[in-house]
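User: Is it possible to get a 3D structure for a protein together with its bound compound? The compound here is 5-hydroxymethyl-3,4-dihydroxypiperidine. I've pasted both below.
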Amino acid sequence: MEQVFPSDFLWGAATAAYQIEGSLHVDGRGPSIWDTFAAVPGAVLGGADGDPGCDHYRRYREDVALMGELGLPAYRFSTAWPRVMPDGRTVEPRGLAFYDRLVDDLLDRGIRPLVTLYHWDLPQALQDVGGWGRRDIAARFTDYACTVHERLGDRVADWTTLNEPFCSAFLGYGLGVHAPGVQDERAALVAAHHHLLAHGSATRALRELGGAGQRLSIVLNFSPALADRDDDAHRDAVRRFDGLHNRFFLDPVLGRGYPEDVLADLAHLRALEPAIHDGDLSTVGASVDWIGVNYYAPSRVVPLSDPHTPSNCELPGLRGVDVLPPRGPLTSIGWEQHPGSLTDLLVWLDEHCAGVPLVVSENGAAFTDVVDADGRVRDVRRTRYLAEHLRAVHAAIARGADVRGYLAWSLLDNFEWAFGYTQRFGLVHVDFDTQRRTVKDSGRFFADVVARNAVPAN
Ligand code: IFM
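Assistant: Yes, that's possible. Here is the predicted structure of the complex:
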């Protein structure tokens, strides 16, 4: 018995430039905020940075061939702003040429490229003048987006502006556990608005540049809030967490502005209103063709007796709600495995987005993997995680959600940000000393799902 997906369902895997490319000092690439942040003692586990990554900048042909062997019809990757514009403004032709070669190679193998323009590697030169805290970052990003589009737009139809502005703004400027390492609740909210402004401004510009077949999108990360009780206090805790984590980014993109209840929850900070200028919300709401849904785990929330007590979690300005420890089974990064939340999320998003299609743009799990003596990686837990989450996607489609695709995170084990190289998410194992690639059992399982367009029923 198997669960069959719609015949035009899009299958693939995803990566991001800083996590896999390596070659940080090659072909004129400029420093990014992640190079700077990773050099701060204690910022990244093991003192690691994006070198060597998966050495993908030099081995991309091998990696594209691997995708071909796995039969992946699509590949989501990001372009590195500091490669394309080392100082954030001036084009480096060698950087652009790399993505040109990559796209050609993908197309030669019949693999559809989905380009994400920003996956957290801001040129350091732009951070030096304020980064996402400055309003004119939207114009800088739009220039960069148009530059990449002018070069690749004849062959690439799928464009994503930003990956997970939540992480870039809230973890980078609020909690400070991501680059640029700023710890300031107000700065995080302002940075979030500037991310969304950059998204809207670039979306408008790309819409003008692109042809009819072009599809524009943004990728957001969602963590549905779960509570143990269904009373007023718990419902309000869910509302607060969900509001700031999920609806805060989604609603403006859908053209609805920031949710009123979230603005009220954040009013005590007096941060956001001065940053929002006339016309911004209409720019942010530039229409998109699909919403990318990154899902890994839910969050368990509990109300605090004093609604003014700051939350223990990463959301800037959140008061009156705490996040509880995740419940087992966990992945090695400590995230709860809860496939039912993915079904509920997709069904809710489908209703909330009112006609905008969804693509699961990232989903996957980190576990400790070993290459056995016979050369196999028997990653049973990841295979089970994938199967359960694919069934969860299937269940959402069966309930009417317009989900058009699923992109596994990640093609390769890679640099997992502040966790360095300690967390392996890949369908393909990478030995970071030798750069040897080994397809894991989960990679073969996923290839089989793709080939059959179906997941085993249990
Ligand atoms: O590795 C990251 C990716 O860069 C963004 N989404 C979540 C993944 C796992 O943490």
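The first helix runs from residue 17 to 20. The two ends are 8 Å apart (CA to CA).
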